[in-house]
Amino acid sequence: AKALGKNSFHYYTKSMRDKALKRMTLLKDLRYAIGHQQLFVEYQPIVDLATSKITKAEALVRWQHPKDGLIRPDEFIPISEESGLIVDISNWVFRQVCADVVHWRKQYSADLQISINTSPVHYADQDSCITNWIDYMESHQVPAEAILLEITEGLLMSGDDSVSNKLFHFKKNGVGIALDDFGTGYSSISYLKKYPTDYLKIDKGFVQSVTEVTNDKVLCEAIIVMAQKLGINVVAEGIETKGQYDMLKNMGCQFGQGYLFSKPLGKQAFNALLSQQ
Ligand code: C2E
Ligand code: CA
Ligand code: CA
Ligand code: CA
């Protein structure tokens, strides 16, 4: 038993070392990727449930690794946050989105909005303040209403005044705020009063059981009613079936996103979709 214990200890440290090494390589590759056209943005349509029109889209970053193929954000966003690289990634995504949305608003739909995921790390960064985005938009003729910032409850939990100031600064300049993954964290209702929230995105976990007789159904409906009374628009994430769509629409949910409408699309494919409607 002793030998086995020693052995498993040996394997344990080896796997720890492998993990750390893999992480370091990934980080090095990611740092390189940003400046070398390996990152790209996909757009997932957000549909107005009443009219079925695409009025918004969420920008989702992807990484085409030269050797490992497509790497999903869940794999590289966490390490980019730990290392601070997320600031460069976010700035890069933001600029892509600015260029694309200006083009699409001119070409196809004047009130199209693109929502961008933002990281708490970026709000805390001293050197590259996220509020610089406002200056960038002004100097590049990007209307403030064209951009929505997705934030998560984790950002608000700190209760940090500087976070709150930044969010109000965006709000004052006309940039909308969407609270992402609502229902998965602490979901403190007080956040909705305290911060300038324009949209609330109900997490796909709730949406996926909305047609079953569960508490999730009751919660979904309660969230929608509450948001409406507070003047906050609701986006349901992860709609995959017609049943979920009908249920949410009947509950009064205004917007939907999910595979039922479309998976995230490359720039060209999303462009083609816009040109058809
Ligand atoms: P999220 O913000 O909650 O994004 C929604 C995720 O749900 C996306 O995964 C999307 O592809 C997926 N999804 C959309 N519709 C459906 C559906 O009908 N069913 C199911 N099962 N899934 C659906 P993705 O693209 O892999 O992104 C994962 C997470 O990575 C995002 O979760 C977000 O937290 C983060 N992320 C993505 N892009 C960025 C970025 O540019 N910056 C930052 N900071 N985070 C990002
Ligand atoms: Ca999101
Ligand atoms: Ca989400
Ligand atoms: Ca998420």
Automatic annotation (TrEMBL):
It comes from the Bacteria. Residues 23-277 form the EAL domain. This is EAL domain-containing protein. It comes from Alteromonas profundi. The chain holds residues 501 to 777 of 777 of the full protein.
